[in-house]
Amino acid sequence: MKTIFTFFQIVFSFLFLFIFSFCQSPKQSPNPEILPATVEKKYHYSKQISEIKKQMAKTYLYPEELNKPKAFQKAAIIATESFGHQILLPKSFYTKFQDSIQGDIIHDGELSDLIIIRNPNFENTTMQSDSVASQLEEEFTKIPFSQDLLESVMEILYLQNEALSLTNTDTIKWEEIQFVASEGYVSSFLGSSLMIYEKYEDLLRPKTVISIEIPLKETKSKRKIITTLQETSFLKKIGLQNEDELITINGNPIRYLSTETVNRMFKGKVGENIDISILRNQNEKYGFKVPLKENKPSDQKIAEGQILTGKYNFIYIKVSGFIKNNQSSATEMMKENYFTLMEDAKNKNIVIHGFVLDLRNNPGGFLDQIIECMRMLIPNGLLVTTQSSRTSPSMVYANQSTITELPLVVLINENTGSGSELIAGVIQHYHRGIILGSKSTGQGLVHILNKVSGEENSLIKIASSFLYLPNGKKFHETGITPNVWVSDLKEMDLNLFDAKNNEQINSTSESKEKYQKLDITSISQWIEQNGTFRQKIRSDNDKNLLPDYQLYRSLDFFSGYLATQK
Fold first, then answer.
1. Which of 407, 421, 433, 471 has the smallest count of CB within 10 Å of its CB?
2. Is it the case that residue 85 has pLDDT exceeding 60?
3. d(Cα 283, Cα 474) in Å, to the nearest integer?
């Protein structure tokens, strides 16, 4: 279901990404153990991070990493930027370019290697140079960051905030500054441990303040590049494109800011717009308004299905996330959809030839839901192994509870994460179905969700275990590679496939053996003569709808595959 940005996506995107997106296990009581002496040291201004370190030492996969310099550095940078128009810099960098940076030095403390600059000028020609911008990170790497240094930065920020409050200047609550520092700290571990500044019981309540996610990658020269926008994304509808460089947000230059700070700038009240400017093709500048859409009640379900008819007829079910509530769960809705549609097909004398499970943009969910979904599709064998740093491997098997033996296709893309990747990987391992689309996210982790000690509104999601495929391999950071790479781009001819990526897939002996049943040449010839991709696109355009190019190409492939089977 690749449509314009819907209410469901707005309401649940953060819920998924912050809580459920990479598989969540039930809350556990960690085994007590002796913590490193450095964790026991008392810190006043970064005490929340001390509490987080204690929790992570008990549950995180790599407790020896908890004093990682990069994590403390990121915490200090983001906390400093939370004041607005303020940045943390290495003194060596500032000394070299101070005539260009300008701004006011914050004097509320002493830092040997760092400096805080208020109202810096990064718009001049010198600071816009790639060679200059790339030196910033190089200078940061020379600084031996520790929690002691972070504590010094936090003390300066505390005193600055206190001074601003005495002059009736707008200030931030100190708790929020502590939170963003903690957010920066925990996000440094496996790229997935996250902080949530919200009470657990408030997570599902309607929001008056929401955020819009624009996928960004940062270059070595600090440029913020928009990437992995889906063809049907509402961001593309308003005019944004992949490889656009984000320049300003609400008139504020963002190049030298951290990506975490930039992402927080896309937060506001429902109904408001965020003004951004981008640079395209290195010399074309454009402005756009990004709407913060209102959260309204919706009847849209977590799992929805339909019968797709043509030369071959398919049951199509889209699952947006493997979550559950008191009334239902994603897998219950998936099963209900399947049997209802099969009964409907029988009553209408429609012969069903295959089953299409759409897991695109599905960030995962509860591990028990993921397991139940796999058991509905895989009859026998090992499904998944989890392994933490302190426990024996835990293995889960299929249990003869499959609901269908129909030929199966699973659609994935770069936003298919965690448990959804696991489903695709297991189906691929057992040759139960064909995986189509693009390479998945690569977030093969189990998380637990805990409250932060002494903080009523702060929650932390901590990686506690890897997910292993039946062959014993992890897919964390590598993702699941589809059997056939199907493009979601409009700018393609009748050819379904991304030729370059499929050459890479078929270049290894393992891939050739795994996909030897796919006669791509015969399938392509069948599609050339019988495919309906173009007709579907034309029909959607006539109805003023955004076509789902990847889905339509995949349906043609599935039909061609069935037609060419001996």
1. 471
2. yes
3. 42
